[in-house]
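Board notes, transcribed. Complex of a protein with iron/sulfur cluster.
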Amino acid sequence: MSYSDILLKYKDLPFEKIFHELSPQEVERSIASGTQEPERLLALLSPTAEGFLESMAQKAHALTLQHFGRTIQLYTPMYLSNFCENECAYCGFNARNKMPRRTLTLEEVEKEAAFIASTGIEHLLILTGDSRTKSSPAYIKECLSVLKKYFSSISAEIYALSEEEYADLVRSGIDGLTLYQETYDEAVYERVHRSGPKKDFIFRLDAPERAARSGMRNVNVGVLLGLSDWRKEVFLMGLHAQYLQDHFGDVETGASLPRLRPHAGDFKEMTEVSNANIAQIIVALRLFLPRLGIALSTRESAGLREDLLPLGITRMSAGSTTRVGGHTIASPEEENAPQFEIADPRDVDAMKAMLVAKGYQPVLKDWMQI
Ligand code: SF4
């Protein structure tokens, strides 16, 4: 059985009816209970639970301290290439957008790596567009041979691969994968992924478990908040993370909660996700899966990231740019071609200072390759 079988079972629930019929007593019972029944996650994500956010936040904070302590892992993204063969309606790298495109040479990769490493960061996240010709697995492996000299942990946010390809990357130095399903609603998925290899919903859906089987140490799932009804999306993503935890006990499982940001192109946000909604999502996930890593990226503003920090966040990006070569190389023309606009431009030192001031330990390194 794979997660696609579980999705089949739950995707057509009458979500609207279930969410709106939940009573305050059912929500209170769900907050108090420690079970991992899907019905409990539905209750925690319901509109009725909005009236219990304070008690949910207190419990979420306590669970986060119990499982992660007062620590936040910091990482920095590095874009290797923005060539892409997909037309994802919501993304600035969309193949239809006319923009400067480049793939970093190995010399450029080294220059970016040296700069990021000089900030003290040891956890790197590499990203590419979806192009097997311009940023092939072989190219990514060449980059890893450079990057391994600078970082103790390297994760990838790249197009979906086969299990053998993931295993090959693990042998070459990748230890983590982040792969957003974007939306678990197959009809919306079909509509916003207008063309390209990413249109294969099931191949992408099953990628996190292929990565977990391949020996990846850390696997993160995610939805792009704003594409569809967030309560339903987060419910199905929560079950996906639960599936990974249940089936791959030796793999750290995490979730990311990116919200749609301005970018090049004509796509307009489809559904509203408020700051209070984001807070509810974080506390609901923490109560449902106490050991789940939760990342909050620079898509959100500095103020909001700090407000959400105690609710269950375990990883944050710092010193971010969403441009290829954006740390040391991007030309003024390329400066105008981000994947999306970031809302929190703070560098690593500023993030460290903020965390220390709030009583947290910024963690720059918690693992290294053997
Ligand atoms: S989201 Fe990824 S696959 Fe889609 S257009 Fe952007 S870079 Fe390409």
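Residues 84, 86, 88, 91, 93-94, 129-130, 198 surround iron/sulfur cluster (CB under 6 Å). Residues 3-363 form a domain with the TIM Barrel fold (CATH 3.20.20.70).
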